[in-house]
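Private note to self, pasted from the team thread so I don't lose it. Backbone tokens:
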């Protein structure tokens, strides 16, 4: 019998499955999608996430998939540059974009080298199995049942496992959706990959060169009350009218390369309780993260390390279910402080963006004072980024 069944092969599930099977623990990983490319996946990894990858012994794997560092962050308000900050901003490595689908596939391919690993893809988990009051496995969409000593729900922000286990999610008030565009890259981004955040005339968007060669990514913020008819908007012109001249010219020139956007619903929240006897939620299933300042994948990998530290010694010795259930509460206790802080910081960053988008007076003030106060605002912003880049608590893999 498999010891652990992990539901969802995103960053949390795939990395945890690999850590467990490498330590000899029989693990089944179930993924609803047929392949990793079918699901939208963010790309930015902060130094804390890169450090987690290094600790898991996966830096060489990362080198082998498309990746690209961010060279600088630049904020533009109206037609003025507010400030630019160069990476690595005092960290030992720069924020790096990593193409998630090939990285996830590499994690799974490496796990497949271990006889303890089973991977089931293209079939969703639909329900949970019970043994008296304890969760004792999962039921798949095709009717198959997989009994296990422990179920780990890593099935993301709309987690089915969370719903079936009746673990409550307390959501933060919804404020944004994101339209995600891909388009041809401008050579300037290839030479100097600046992550631009542009606020102009009540609109806000970010643009940067993604991990894959030749592709710009553009994330356009839609407020909760936004009435934009986004399916029938002339996007090239909309971006151009809010951008610096060289970028505007690029948007107009490459209008044909702008792919239809994906509308991504941003769910942010936290489960007051991540576990029940026989089950724990990790990653977005337990604490869906906002895309603001790229925290989710980093938090996911850090959850994985803490979970492995607690679970591996117990699962290796086939401990009783009471000991395993006790470890589940310890995992939440160890991870919660960092998650709460990261979500607070993300909310503060989002609030600042919202004020600038919605308040023409504040924007005007920023634009007029930028030549004198830009440097001060930059220093203030950089100081506020420390925890978002480095993490809040110490996370060390010890198993
Ligand atoms: C627009 C946007 C941009 C983002 N950009 C970034 C970024 O640049 N950097 C960053 O760090 N974070 C980013 N995030 C957050 C980040 O995507 C998440 O925090 C992160 O993906 C969480 O990883 P996960 O493995 O927990 O969940 P997910 O990545 O959501 O993976 C869950 C997996 O479970 C599978 N699944 C779902 N239901 C089932 C089921 N019933 N049975 C089996 N499998 C199932 C899904 O197919 C999926 O593969 C972004 C989020 C959004 C919304």
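Design output:
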């Amino acid at each position: 019998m498999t010891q652990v069944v992990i539901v969802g092969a995103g960053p949390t599930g795939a990395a945890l499955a690999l850590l467990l099977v490498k330590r000899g623990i029989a693990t089944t990983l179930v993924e609803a999608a047929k392949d990793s490319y079918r699901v939208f996946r963010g790309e930015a990894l902060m130094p804390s996430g890169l450090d987690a990858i290094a600790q898991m012994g996966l830096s060489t794997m990362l080198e082998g998939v498309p990746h690209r560092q961010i060279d600088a962050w630049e904020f533009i308000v109206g037609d003025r540059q507010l400030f630019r900050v160069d990476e690595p901003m005092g960290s030992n490595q720069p924020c790096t974009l990593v193409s998630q689908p090939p990285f996830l596939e590499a994690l799974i391919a490496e796990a497949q080298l271990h006889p303890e690993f089973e991977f089931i893809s293209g079939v969703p988990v639909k329900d949970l199995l019970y043994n008296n009051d304890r969760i004792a496995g999962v039921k798949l969409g095709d009717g198959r049942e997989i009994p296990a000593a422990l179920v780990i729900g890593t099935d993301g922000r709309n987690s089915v496992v969370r719903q079936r286990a009746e673990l409550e999610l307390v959501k933060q008030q919804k404020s944004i959706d994101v339209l995600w565009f891909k388009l041809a890259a401008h050579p300037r981004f290839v030479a100097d990959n600046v992550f631009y955040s542009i606020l102009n005339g009540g609109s806000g968007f970010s643009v940067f060169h993604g991990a894959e060669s030749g592709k710009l990514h553009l994330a356009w913020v839609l407020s909760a009350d936004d009435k934009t008819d986004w399916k029938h908007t002339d996007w090239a012109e909309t971006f151009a009218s809010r951008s610096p001249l060289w970028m505007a010219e690029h948007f107009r020139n490459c209008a044909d390369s702008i792919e239809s956007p994906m509308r991504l619903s941003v769910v942010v929240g936290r489960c007051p309780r991540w576990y029940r006897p026989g089950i724990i939620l990790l990653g977005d299933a337990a604490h869906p993260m906002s895309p603001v300042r790229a925290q989710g994948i980093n938090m996911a990998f850090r959850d994985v390390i803490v979970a492995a530290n607690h679970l591996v010694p117990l699962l290796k010795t086939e401990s009783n279910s009471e000991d395993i259930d006790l470890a589940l509460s310890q995992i939440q206790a160890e991870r919660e402080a960092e998650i709460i802080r990261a979500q607070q910081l993300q909310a503060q960053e989002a609030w600042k963006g919202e004020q600038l988008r919605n308040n023409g007076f504040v924007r005007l003030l920023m634009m007029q004072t930028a030549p004198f106060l830009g440097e001060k605002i930059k220093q203030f912003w950089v100081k506020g980024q420390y925890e978002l880049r480095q993490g809040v608590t110490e996370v060390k893999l010890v198993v």
